[in-house]
Please model this.
Amino acid sequence: METDQLIAIDIFCTNYNVEYSFVQSLGEAGLIDTVVIQETKYIHIPQLQKLESIIRLHDDLDINLEGIEVVHHLLKRVETMQNEILMLKNRLRFFDGNV
Model:
């Protein structure tokens, strides 16, 4: 597997001053995806923005892991509803040229 789109969790934790166990617990909770290659755990670089957001929730707002899971779930629901609203608006435009 190519590692050009991966960053080792221990390197991430060192650079972001985050506990390794916290990132590991995020992976166990299913909030981020981790990959193990030769006994080293990695995260996908495209997930960094999401991981940074989770760290801000945890550090700045002092939200625990369970709270982060709830926030993540609610944000996914909002995104789903926004996509559904957009789809419904497009269907309305198709049937009624005035919208």
